[in-house]
Amino acid sequence: MDRVIKHGARSGQVKIPASKSQAHRALILSAISQEPVRIILDGISKDIQATADCLQALGAGIRIFDGEISVTPIDREEKRDKPCELRCAESGSTLRFMLPLAGAFGAEGRFLPQGRLMQRPLAPFDECLTAHGMKITKTCDSIFFEGQLRSGEYELPGNVSSQYISGLLMALPLVDGKSVIRVSGKIESASYITMTQDLLKTAGACVEINVGGDATSYEIAGGAPLKMPQVFEVEGDFSSAAFYICMGALSEKGIRVRGLNLKTSQPDRAVIDVIKSFGADVSVSGDEVTVRKNKLKGVTIDASQIPDIIPVLSVVAAVSEGQTRIVNAARLRIKESDRLESTAALLKAVGADVSELPDGLVINGVKELSGGHVSAYNDHRIAMSAAVAACACRGDVTLSQSECVSKSYPAFWDDFGKLACEK
């Protein structure tokens, strides 16, 4: 549906919903824990619903209430007499986490992806799993799997999705015997792996890390029981907070963002440092970040560790004096949309000066954006970035496919609408 976003800077305060990244991991580890777990979180996005549905298909008991999810673990001894269907929707995290987990249980069935997910790469992950006991077949609309995942030595390059490594780290504790994951070269989005390690430690898993030269190895002791806390509260989501932090950089009165863990391993916490480097006025206190407008200047942003917040940072760059360069961003082309293309299209549609490169963007700042009609490309992060762009426009922004925010942040338009418009 089309949504008209009134132009003008926003101000006020907002409480951030639960971290989607941490919620995925907490759900999975709760489903393979020894005892039932209550997960406290506000807001169930489509991606989290997809992970819950897939875990339920594997045998977990999942009950969703207002503000929490109750998880009864999968019975490891239960015999699976028929193939299971795992509906992962458009969630890349769900597919990449659940595929090795299904193998760890020796399950047979198929994943049913939607949208662009079938176009997003699985190699060399599928080859890695096949070499350790699984059989994976990809058709035009399904990914079939069978076979028992085995322990052993796994090798992956560091420039693939970190979700491959996280998926193995969560699945291999279920498999008897020691396993080693060897990752060669610099690991992209490495902080997401740290988040996985942190939660595995919470559940009692034994994972040892060794770094030597340009390689990193993870040693996992298989067969040991996992035990998540009986109650686990998911922290606030920095990926969602990034939109308001960037809005604050465009606001004289500022925006206060509440409900954040400033010591988190979430990589998108880096939005605070990047916004500071632009020149915005940023203050941090307790679980809050307050951001106000100041003189903004262009910067160079390395996208390799923070790909998800590049679209919204590009909006800030569009009204920052001088030139901003987005580098090491080739992986943005295989997200829910080609995010280099869709970000450039969004910015051009509202009057920005932007050039698209094979692995990045060059943005020359202008004083003000014009507004206009833009497409979300059915990509939640492009849709929310369009809302931020409206804060720097002299005219309204009409956004198509605005409902796609439900993939990660269903309440976004409600929360955005509660902010004061300064025009």
Write the topology of this structure.
Elements: E1 3-5, E2 10-15, H1 20-31, E3 37-40, H2 46-57, E4 61-65, E5 68-72, E6 84-89, H3 92-104, E7 109-113, H4 125-130, E8 135-138, E9 143-146, E10 153-157, H5 162-171, E11 177-184, H6 190-202, E12 207-212, E13 215-222, E14 231-233, H7 238-248, E15 255-258, H8 271-278, E16 281-285, E17 288-292, E18 300-302, H9 310-318, E19 323-327, H10 339-349, E20 353-357, E21 360-364, E22 372-375, H11 380-390, E23 397-400, H12 412-417, E24 420-421
Helix pairs in contact: 1-2, 1-3, 1-6, 2-3, 3-5, 5-6, 7-9, 7-11, 9-10, 9-11
Structure description:
This protein is of the alpha/beta class and 423 residues long. It folds into two domains: 202 residues, Enolpyruvate transferase domain (UDP-n-acetylglucosamine1-carboxyvinyl-transferase, Chain); 203 residues, Enolpyruvate transferase domain (UDP-n-acetylglucosamine1-carboxyvinyl-transferase, Chain, Alpha-beta prism), CATH 3.65.10. Helix 3 packs parallel to helix 5. The longest helix is centred in the first third of the chain and has 13 residues. The protein is globular, with a radius of gyration of 21 Å. The mean pLDDT is 96. Its EC number is 2.5.1.19. Keywords: Amino-acid biosynthesis, Aromatic amino acid biosynthesis, Cytoplasm, Transferase.
Overall CATH architecture of the largest domain: Alpha-beta prism
Number of domains: 2
SS element count, helices? 12
Unreliable residue runs: none
CATH superfamily of the largest domain: Enolpyruvate transferase domain
- The end-to-end span amounts to 25 Å
DSSP, total strands: 24
Q: How can the largest sheet be summarized?
A: 5 strands, mixed
- Largest sheet: spatial strand order: 16-17-15-2-24
CATH topology of the largest domain: UDP-n-acetylglucosamine1-carboxyvinyl-transferase, Chain
Give the amount of beta strand, in percent. 25-35%
What is the CATH class name of the largest domain?
Answer: Alpha Beta
- Rg calculated over all Cα atoms: 21 Å
Tell the overall outline: globular
Q: Could you report the average pLDDT, rounded to the nearest whole number?
A: 96
User: How much helix is in the residues?
Assistant: 25-40%
Computed structural class? alpha/beta
